[in-house]
Structure formats: structure tokens, C-alpha cells
Amino acid sequence: MSLSKDEACKSSSPRENGFPDHVSLANLEKALGDLRVETPVHNTDDHLIEFSEALRTVAKALRRAAEGKVSAQAEAAEWKRKYELERARNQQLELIEDSCGRQNGSVASNLTGEISGPHPMVDYESNGQQERCCAGDGICSHEVLFDNEAGSLSGDSQNKMKRKASFKLSWRCKGEKSNQYKHDIVSFEKGNISTAGRTSKQISLKWESPPQTVLILTKPNSASVRVICLEMVRWLKEQKNVNVYVEPRVKSELLNASSFFGFVKTWQDESEISPLHTKVDLVVTLGGDGTVLWAASMFKGSVPPIVPFSLGSLGFMTPFYSERYKECLDAILKGPISITLRHRLQCHVIRDSARNEYETEGPILVLNEVTIDRGISSYLTNLECYCDNSFVTSVQGDGLILSTTSGSTAYSLAAGGSMVHPQVPGILFTPICPHSLSFRPLILPEHVTLRVQVPFNSRSPAWASFDGKDRKQLAAGDALVCSMAPWPVPTACLGDSTADFLRSIQDDLHWNLRKTQSFDGPREQL
Ligand SMILES: NC(=O)c1ccc[n+]([C@@H]2O[C@H](COP(=O)([O-])OP(=O)(O)OC[C@H]3O[C@@H](n4cnc5c(N)ncnc54)[C@H](O)[C@@H]3O)[C@@H](O)[C@H]2O)c1
Ligand SMILES: Nc1ncnc2c1ncn2[C@@H]1O[C@H](COP(=O)(O)OP(=O)(O)OP(=O)(O)O)[C@@H](O)[C@H]1O
To answer: Whose atoms come closest to the Cα of 215: which ligand?
Structure first.
């Protein structure tokens, strides 16, 4: 393995290379010339380091030649080959940097292949063995973040000598399959950690081919929703020529109104719902937040982008005005769309009687929260909570809410949890009426797995409900296991994720609404 430039730099003195005192730098330069090795003597630090590495190699060549092991020319030629390869790699990295732009001080690159193989600054090998972080089932991505520090390429070689060690950080997360892991590895040049290239920004969706199929989901039993739905389906067919899917109930309503709606597609039974995500490009919801939750619950895996029109009473997650559906859908079908990626939780109920943890009940995905409460029982619930394998606490009260950040403005808020921007990844741990003076709500990182267990000595069973629906009894010994789902719900924004969130907390929840203090009255004397 060739030396890193740092190592070469540290041991650049000829004396350290084992040369006798009378061998000067000039002698060595001459030796390089004699060997017809192009001396990379330039003005920058990097070239000084390359030069010192050249000297080291020549020193080694001369020593080996003197010992009769190999010809100095052969050794020098080998060095020259390595040097050319390294220079080609550096040039390629510079090209990648140029194409990505260095505005943020960060560059992402995939370093693969012969020339574009491991950059000499990045130690891909440890103890001579290629790192195999993800084994056969894993996915690895590697990014190199370059430091844009002023003066880093100045001619001050002293700075270079003192340069910090480079290192890499690795993020391990679950992949799509249960046994799969994904490793994001980021190498930080010069060991300066920066999140500049990794902080999540406003997400924008740009169609690569025009969307052709729209699924419209509507709140039942609403005359105004029925009217808008009818108009929208007609407009989508006549003006946009897109295929339209609706629920069987809505298809009957449309056909009752006119035979024109014969083209509208639907499904006959539940089994036809699961492959819907492969056919539908866009989902439109006409209703309130409950309709958005309903739409999300129809997709157990990946979810197409959802455009939520407000036809409900509160509409925290429904920023689009139904009266202006034509211009909204026109813009959305063209793209690009600003979206909020709303994280979901996946929950497993594990029965005490089950032999294998995930054997009995499939995962239930929630967009807001899973609630474990006392149900109709009048006894205090007692729930034992674990985070990964650590005991967290015992909840003694009415119950516990495990919420997404989207759900932070729903039930969790009513139970005293904080409001969190939906784009923040995390799990809220909010007790419901805890019988304790010191039980504050928590927000845990996205990657944890939580386990809520009904203890064997519990006086009564607990009940789990998912986005306020599908109540399931948890008997003594049963547990609920919850972690972040790999399939988020992309919802279209009217402005952007933050503007929509702030508008909703102000207009819908009347957050921090207070009369403004008047100018009248006592004032500070300046
Ligand atoms: N005490 C409470 O505040 C309480 C009690 C039970 C359920 N809920 C919430 O109701 C949700 C189910 O909603 P639904 O519409 O099917 O039932 P619902 O018709 O009973 O509506 C509950 C209310 O919560 C609002 N809401 C739902 N999700 C929201 C969110 N993410 N942010 C802000 N407000 C939101 C709805 O607009 C509605 O006004 C549950 O997931 C739960 O969060 C709240
Ligand atoms: N397509 C649907 N099929 C069955 N039930 C639905 C459907 N859409 C919504 N619901 C249910 O109808 C209820 C009311 O819907 P929604 O919450 O959208 O209206 P809302 O209560 O008037 O509005 P908001 O939630 O904004 O106050 C919810 O419980 C929701 O689960």
C-alpha cells in the first residue's frame, strides 16, 4: 500500500530515510534526474509532499539497488507508475468537484473503478483487508466532504505538517428488507466534521415522465365533497386526459350522477388495493386530516405523492384550497412540487403466546401516532417501556402516545407534547395523564426501536389504537414494538414545508395568539 501524503510529509527528511549525512537534497535531485524521473517540484504544499515521497522512493530504490536486490531504474519506474495513477485520480476528483460545485464546501462522489478507485487520502483498507461493512445484504454509499478552509492550499508547508488526521463517519440504518442494512460513509478530509452537505433541505419533486393516473379519495357523507369530486374527475379527463381511480363507493356515486363517468376505475376487493402504488402517480384527497390519514393507511409500502385539498373542519395537513383545484392541479401535474416527506411509524403487536416475535401480526403503519391507553378500564395503566435494549420507564397513568413529528400537532399536543416540524425525524414519547410530578415528554431519535410491554402483574389489559382507529387489546405479557417505517408519506406543499407548517399552527391552532400590548401606559425612561 502506498504511503499517504501525510506520512510522506512527516518522514521527508533524507536522514530519516536512512541516508548517510553527506547525501544532500541536491544529490538526491540529481539522482532523480539520472533515473529520468520527472521531479514534481512545484510551488504548492501538495507538490512538496509528492516530491518528498519521490525522494523516499528513490532512497529506497538506491538502497535496494546497492544491496543488489533490484535495479534502481525498475524501482523508480514503479514509483513513476504509481505517481501517474495518483495524479490521474486527483485530476478526476477535481473534475467531480468542478461538476458538483464547491459552493457549499462539500462534494459528493462515488469512488469506484480502477482510476477512480480509492482516493489515496481515504483509507479504504484496514490491516490490508477491504472493509466489508454491509456483508452481502447491505448497501454502501461513500461520500467525501472536502474542507473549504481558507488557506488550505497555501504555500505554508508548516500547516501541512500539522494537518489533522482524516477520518470517516458511518451511518448505519435499516434497509428496505428486514435483514438489510445500509451504510452511508462520509470521509471528512482533514478531519473537520461538517454537516453542510447533509442537512435536509426543502425537498422538490420533478416529474421525469408526465403523471398519467390520479387516485381521488374523498371524505364520506359530505355533499360539498361529492360536488367537487364530480367536477374534478370530469376536468381531469377532459382537460388533462389522465386516468382516474376512486373508491367503489365513489364510483357508484359518479355513475348515479352520469354515465359519462364509466371510464373511472376502481377495485372490487381489498386485495386489489395493495398493488395500487404501482399504478397511481398521484393521490388527491378531498376532506380533512382524517382523509389524509385514510389515504396514507391505504399504502402499506411506498406512497405516491398526496395532494390534500381542504374540505374538512380543521385541515392542519390540507393546505390546498378546493375552490382553486384547477390551477393547483395544473401546476402539480407539470411540477416541480415542493413536498414534505412525512415519516411513519411501523408497529407490531407481539402476543405473549407467539413463539416468534414477528410471526403473528403484520406491521401497522401510522402517520400520526400509536396510542396505548387504559381503554374502558378505570384502573391506572402500567406500561413498561424499553428503547432498543435499555429500560426507559414505567408509565403509570392513562397511557402513552408514540407519535411521529407529523402527529405532534394532534393527540400528542393535547397530552402536553411539543409541536415539532414534520420534516424533523424523530419519535415523540408522550405520556397521557401520568400520575407523577416529573414525567416530561421526550423526543427520541428516528433510528430507535421502542417496546411497550404490559407487565404480567398488570391489573387490566391495555388498548392500542393506530391513528385513532383499529383498537387492539394488549393482554398481560403482550407488547407493542414500534420503529420508524421505511416508507414516508410525501405530501405536496402549497408554499414549502416550513411555510405550510407555520401557517397551520397559526391559522388552525391559533398558536401564541395574544392581543398586542398597547403603546399607552408606563414606559422605560431612556
Ligand atoms: N385529545 C385529542 O386531541 C385527540 C383524541 C383522540 C384522537 N385525536 C387525534 O385524531 C386523529 C385522528 O384524526 P381523525 O380526523 O381521523 O379523527 P377526528 O375526526 O376525531 O379528528 C381529530 C381532530 O384532530 C385533527 N388532526 C388529525 N391529525 C392531525 C395532525 N396531524 N395535526 C393537527 N391536527 C390533526 C383533525 O383535524 C381533527 O380536528 C388521531 O390520530 C389523533 O391524533 C386527538
Ligand atoms: N375515504 C374514506 N373512507 C372512509 N373513511 C374516511 C375516508 N376519508 C376520511 N374518512 C374518515 O372520516 C372521518 C372524517 O374525515 P376528516 O377528518 O377528513 O374530516 P373532518 O373531520 O371534517 O376534518 P378535520 O379532520 O380536518 O377536522 C375520519 O375519521 C376519517 O378517518
So the answer is: 2
